[in-house]
Structure formats: structure tokens, C-alpha cells
Design goal:
The chain is an alpha/beta fold. The chain has two domains: about 200 residues, Rossmann fold (3-Layer(aba) Sandwich), CATH 3.40.50.300; about 150 residues, P-loop containing nucleotide triphosphate hydrolases (Rossmann fold). It is built from 18 helices and 14 strands. The strands form two sheets. Strands 3-4-2-5-6-1-7 form a seven-stranded parallel sheet, sandwiched between helices. A seven-stranded parallel sheet has the order 10-11-9-12-13-8-14, with helices on both faces. Strand 12, helix 14 and strand 13 form a beta-alpha-beta unit. Helix 2 runs parallel beside helix 3. It is globular and about 65 Å long. The protein starts with 10 loop residues before the first helix and ends with a helix. Bound molecules: adenosine monophosphate. Adenosine monophosphate (AMP) binds next to helix 3.
């Protein structure tokens, strides 16, 4: 289906789309529409930027008849609070001519506020799994009318350890429903999840990155260590005319804080950071400031940023080299969107060379390597992880093999492998006399005989 008209959607939706100025459906929208309309279970492989939110919302809204009933009929679950807000905004954007009630619920907000919100009745609930489950436990929200379930960003959801909450919710949903799932990547966890809960789903997928690779100018630098990477970053970011809106990817919260603090010393309010240990308000403010171009540089980890719709990023800087090449594709897909040219810079240490090569193999192209600018100081300072492990001489108790399993993870010794069946004395007697000898055994047999 090449045009929105081909979808034969109702006028209200059509007007909404026209107002938004969308010319034609994106590939994931074209592929999803007929399948979701058919009522089958669907697994969509697509990441943010591909138009996936409308890909599932469009057919859902087309099917959703006006109703005044209290209980929601559509449930959309997403991993983070930011995404709840974003999805709610997306729905309201193009459903403005529909009479639709959307309730957005997520953790960190007073429970009473959400009790009052859902008590008013709603058609669609957009939620994080934890808060949703709490609301159903307290009976504020009933899910017995749910006809369609969407789980978005399942890979992130499982990464964040939400499987338990998801399973709990799936178990209380009515069995006759349509399951729709979107994930940026297929992982073993995602696959198992689908097998457990989906009925022969149809899989729809679009290219790994929503952005064509030709739109992104990719370069890399070989950098000896963490602090030299920081020096290089400081040097690059000096050029404010070129580096107008920059997303800096770091591997985890700890590096996020460290890199942020070092950048902040130089660039103060031009820099912001988001990761899961920051309060919700802090994160929302950081994203808003970045989108409004109040801040120029946003430091983030993969999981936190995935799914967020950030506009017009001029540069993606990969402070580390992702171990999974797909994550690199997700990262660089944040720039060069909507037919604009974007830039990606990868910083890699010798240890990360292999990961860089895996990325190049996946893309079928190599990343142009640039010389370190002369003015960038090569730091001698090492992080605790980078420091060579000190060898202990004359420590007779030290295990020689570095890979030897630690105390909490070792094979059981032979004598501990035996299963403890209890009553060893009784078993020994039984074996010897071939019949029960102790009083307990005799009584047990007597009781069983009388049954
Ligand atoms: P998503 O992948 O759902 O996060 O969407 C990414 C962005 O693309 C959002 O800002 C949408 O408003 C926008 N978008 C969605 N569908 C279309 C379309 N058919 N044409 C142009 N932009 C779109």
C-alpha cells in the first residue's frame, strides 16, 4: 500500500494525518496495516524513527468504535515513563478529530492521581507494566474488556527485567485478544517471550535502521583510553557551529555520570544527561531542553535513549563501541533522519577493535578512520577497569588460572552432588533387611494398607 488512501481509513483519521502533513505511509506502516486489521497476532521488528507508533495505532484507531464504557479496550505497554508520555502524545496528535479517551499511567506519580484518572473511564491505556499491575491489584483498573494488546520495545522491556510484571498482566487479560508486539531487535529473550504468549504471529520487519546509511557520514578514531576519549570529545565539541545537536552514547550509568561531569566542567548548561538512576522529572527536563535546543549535548546510555523521539540530531558520538553491532545501528539511526545528512563518530580502543570490525561486517562497509587531532592530549590516566591487574607474588592461596570460577560459582564437589533424600539411617536398614524396620516406616505402611 503506497498511499494512506489505500488504507481506506475513516475521515477523522484522514484529517488528522493531513493536519500532520504526512504524505505517505512509511514501510512499516504499509506492512502493518493490513495484518493488524486482519486481527492476527503480530510481531513487528522496527525501531523508533520508522513510524512504528502510527503503524500500530492507525489500524487500532480505525477499528475502535466510539463508546462510553468505563473499561479500556486497548492496552499499550512500554518500558519507560518517557515513552508512555511520548506514545500518548502521538496518539492524541492524529486522533484529534476522534472522540477518544487515552489514559497514560506510569510509576513515580502519586497512585491517587492515577486512580482518579482511570475512574473517569478510558478507551486506551498507555502504561509501564509496574504501575499498570498495581492499578489492577487495587481494582482501580479492570482489564476484562481488553481486545488488543500492544507491547512496544519488548527488547528493552525484557532488558530492564520486566518479564515478571509482563507475565502477570498477560495472565489477567481476557484470552480472546489480539497481541501486537514491536521490538527493535530479535533477541533470544524476545523469541522465548513470543513463543510463550503469541498465537502463530505474523512477523513484519523493516531494515535495521530507519535511516538509510547513505544519509550518515561515519568516521572513527582509534583512541588509547577512556580519558583520552574525554579529551577528544572536549576538543570536538568546542566547534559549536558544527556540533549543534549531539547525542553522546556511553555504555552504562557510571560512565554516563563521569562523562557528563567532565563535559559539564567545560560546557556547563550546554550539556545534559539521562539514565535510569536520574529522577523522572530530571530526565523529562533533560529531554525537553534538548529537543528545544536549550542544551546542545545529551549524554545517554542505549536503553534509556531507545524509543525516544529526538529530533534533528546533527551528530551521534559513540563514546564506546557497542558489543552488539545492531546497537550501533540503532545509535547512528538517531541522526540523518528525514532525508537530512547526519554524522556519526565512533571512538574505539584497541580492546574494542573487534567490536568495530563486527559493525563493519554487518554494514558491509568500513568506517573511515581519522587521525587524532594533534592538539588532543593523550592521557596517561587510566580507569580502574583499564589498569593492568597487579600480580600478587608469593600468595600461595591465589588461584593461578584467572578464569577459575569464583567462590559463588563452581561445580559441586562429588560428595555434594548426591541428592539429600533424608532418613539415611532408615534407608540403610531398608537396604540391609529389604523391608522397613523403624517404627515410623511400619506405621506408614500400616496406614497405607488400610487405605
Ligand atoms: P516513531 O517511529 O513512531 O517513533 O515515529 C517517528 C516520527 O516519525 C514521529 O515523530 C512521527 O510523528 C513521524 N511519522 C510517523 N509516520 C510518518 C509518516 N507516514 N510520514 C512522516 N512522518 C511520520
Amino acid at each position: 500500500m503506497e498511499l494512506f488512501e489505500d488504507f481506506k481509513i475513516n475521515n477523522q483519521l484522514q484529517y488528522g494525518i493531513e493536519d500532520l502533513g504526512f504524505k505517505k505511509p512509511t514501510p512499516i506502516q504499509s506492512k502493518s496495516f493490513p495484518v493488524i486489521m486482519s486481527g492476527k497476532d503480530v510481531v513487528g521488528i522496527a525501531q523508533t524513527g520508522t513510524g512504528k507508533t502510527f503503524a500500530y495505532m492507525l489500524p487500532i484507531l480505525q477499528n475502535l468504535k466510539y463508546s462510553e464504557q468505563k473499561h479500556p479496550r486497548v492496552l499499550v505497554m512500554v518500558p519507560t515513563r518517557e515513552l508512555v508520555i511520548q506514545v500518548e502524545q502521538e496518539i492524541n496528535k492524529f486522533a484529534k478529530y476522534l472522540n477518544l479517551r487515552v489514559a497514560a499511567v506510569y510509576g513515580g506519580v502519586n497512585m491517587n492521581t492515577h486512580h482518579q484518572l482511570v475512574a473517569q473511564g478510558c478507551d486506551i491505556v498507555v502504561a509501564t507494566p509496574g504501575r499498570l499491575y498495581d492499578l489492577t491489584l487495587s481494582r482501580a483498573l479492570q482489564l476484562k474488556q481488553i481486545k488488543q494488546l500492544v507491547i512496544d520495545e519488548v527488547d528493552v522491556m525484557l532488558d530492564l527485567g520486566f518479564r515478571f510484571q509482563l507475565t502477570n498482566i498477560l495472565e489477567i487479560l481476557p484470552p480472546r485478544r489480539q497481541n501486537i508486539m514491536f521490538s527493535a531487535t530479535m533477541t533470544e529473550d524476545v523469541n522465548l517471550f513470543i513463543q510463550d504468549f503469541f498465537k502463530s504471529p505474523t512477523t513484519i520487519s523493516v531494515a535495521v535502521s530507519g535511516t538509510p546509511l547513505e544519509n550518515i557520514d561515519q568516521v572513527c578514531y582509534a583512541v588509547p583510553n577512556f580519558y583520552t576519549k574525554v579529551n577528544l570529545l572536549l576538543d570536538l565539541l568546542k566547534d559549536k557551529d558544527t556540533f549543534q545537536k549531539v547525542l553522546v552514547f556511553v555504555p552504562n550509568k557510571k560512565s554516563a555520570d563521569l562523562v557528563f561531569n567532565l563535559l559539564e566542567e567545560r560546557f556547563s548548561y550546554e550539556v545534559a544527561v539521562i539514565h535510569s538512576n536520574k529522577t523522572q522529572n530530571y530526565r523529562l527536563r533533560s529531554i525537553e531542553n534538548f529537543n528545544k535546543e536549550k542544551t546542545r549535548v545529551l549524554v545517554t546510555s542505549d536503553v534509556m535513549s531507545r524509543g525516544l523521539d529526538l529530533h534533528k540530531i546533527t551528530h551521534v558520538i559513540n563514546f564506546d563501541t557497542p558489543r552488539y553491532p545492531e546497537n550501533y545501528m540503532h545509535r547512528i539511526g538517531r541522526t540523518g533522519r528525514a532525508e537530512e545528512q547526519g554524522s556519526s563518530i565512533l571512538l574505539y580502543t584497541e580492546k574494542e577493535r573487534e567490536a568495530k570490525e563486527a559493525i563493519e561486517e554487518l554494514m558491509g562497509t568500513s568506517i573511515k578512520e581519522l587521525e587524532m587531532p594533534e592538539q588532543v592530549e593523550i592521557s596517561k590516566q587510566l580507569t580502574p577497569e583499564e589498569r593492568p591487574r597487579e600480580k600478587e607474588i608469593d600468595n600461595p592461596t591465589k588461584i593461578k588460572d584467572e578464569d577459575a570460577p569464583g567462590p559463588a560459582f563452581h561445580e559441586k564437589k562429588e560428595k555434594n552432588r548426591k541428592e539429600n533424600l533424608g532418613g539415611s539411617y532408615r534407608r540403610k536398614l531398608e537396604k540391609k533387611y529389604k523391608k522397613p524396620k523403624t517404627r515410623g516406616d511400619k506405621n506408614y505402611n500400616k496406614r497405607n494398607k488400610n487405605k
